[in-house]
Specification:
Helices cover 33% and strands 20% of the residues. It has 207 residues and is of the alpha/beta class. The protein has one domain: 3-Layer(aba) Sandwich (Rossmann fold), CATH 3.40.50.300. A seven-stranded mixed beta sheet has the order 1-3-4-2-5-6-7, with helices on both faces. β6, α5 and β7 form a beta-alpha-beta unit. It is globular and about 45 Å long. 36% of the residues are buried.
């Protein structure tokens, strides 16, 4: 069964993946019954790069070294089976406080009120581990019973011992976060580390 799931996940993430809309307000969010997986994290954590790596593309989601580049909720239809949603980053971003407040409200309203949202991937930079803004996001997801999974990014930028230390610090928090998925994924969009296991984990929301 595991081999069958792995094959199905591979097939899914090789399907056409099309940009649907960039929604800057709730009324622009597409009306669809497809299950959704959203990607969120601190600004410049690598959300767009991860979406590109998962779908085997280089330019599906725009990437930038400038924090705050993703300025709306970007929806991508994966093979007519799953919707991937690239959300604006939280934390540091080179935008006005007013814009940050608007993003924060939009993201919160979407995460709390989207019935078909199957999972949220909270991306965490492997070099830094959990930051206060990550913990605030996790608490909000816990409070609203939104299932989420931690995904470490930029694994290629640290040593194994450093990664192990970050993982240990995260694993000690599982009991405090009831909506947190028990498996932490470790990825590198540059080298492809952890991409296949994450594809398989996300395929699981369709079962």
């Amino acid at each position: 069964m595991e081999d069958a799931d792995a094959k199905a996940a591979h097939v899914l993430f090789r399907q056409p993946c099309d940009f649907v809309i960039g929604a800057a307000s709730l009324d622009l969010i597409p009306a669809t019954a497809l299950p959704e997986v959203a990607f969120i994290g601190r600004s410049n954590v690598g959300k767009s790069s991860l979406v590109n790596a998962l779908t085997g593309r280089k330019t599906l989601a725009r990437t930038s070294n400038t924090p705050g580049r993703t300025q709306q909720l970007n929806f991508f239809n994966l093979g007519g089976q799953l919707m991937l949603v690239d959300l604006p980053g939280y934390g540091y971003a080179k935008v006005s406080r007013k814009q940050v407040r608007e993003w924060t409200k939009l993201i919160g309203d979407y995460l709390r009120g989207r019935a078909q949202l199957a999972r949220v991937c909270v991306l965490v930079d492997a070099r830094h581990g959990l930051k206060p803004s990550d913990l605030e996001m996790m608490e909000m997801l816990d409070n609203h019973a939104v299932s989420y999974q931690l995904v470490l990014t930029k694994r290629d930028k640290i040593k194994q011992s450093e990664c192990d230390a970050v993982m240990a610090s995260i694993e000690g928090r599982f009991n405090d976060h009831p909506a947190l998925h028990p498996e932490v994924m470790v990825t590198s969009s540059v080298k492809g580390d952890g991409i296949v296991p994450l594809q398989q984990a996300l395929y699981g929301v369709l079962k």
